[in-house]
Amino acid sequence: PPPAASASSVAGEPITMPFGDLTISEGKIVRWTKADGDAVEPGELVAEIETDKSVVEIEAPAAGRLTIEQQPGTVVPMGGRIGVVSPA
Predict the structure, then answer these.
(1) What pLDDT band is residue 21 in, cutting at 50, 70 and 90?
(2) Quick check: 86 pLDDT over 70?
(3) When you count CB atoms within 10 A of the terminal residue's CB, does the N or C end of the chain come out lower?
(4) By C-alpha distance, which of 15, 25, 9, 24 is closest to 57?
């Protein structure tokens, strides 16, 4: 079988850790509300992340199929990619 595609090679609209307060440099993925491969619509809740100040909901940036690149419990720098929505 061909090698699995690396996470960064998945084409589509990236889902990233949002930038918020300038004092926050990273966030932890609390949970995904959708499963890997699920169809999503723009604005649909797909994940929750926790910073040192709050829990933030992450919405799908576009319609398509969700690819999860970072698992719950993973700490990701702000602006870091956690998933991607590929055209369905």
Answers:
(1) confident
(2) yes
(3) N
(4) 15
Cβ atoms within 10 Å of 67's Cβ, excluding its own: 18
Q: What Cα–Cα distance (Å) separates residue 37 from each residue in 33, 34, 41, 85, 88?
A: 12, 8, 13, 9, 10
E-assigned strand segments in 1-88: 13-16, 26-32, 39-40, 45-50, 55-59, 64-68, 75-77, 81-86
**Beta carbons of 59 and 44 less than 8 angstroms apart:** yes
SS3 for 8? helix
Give the domain ranges of the chain: 12-86
N-to-C CA span, the chain: 23
Checking if the pLDDT of 70 tops 90, the result is yes
Q: Supply the pTM of this predicted model.
A: 0.83
Is 2.40.50.100 the CATH classification of the domain at 12-86?
yes
Residue 5 pLDDT greater than 60, yes or no: no
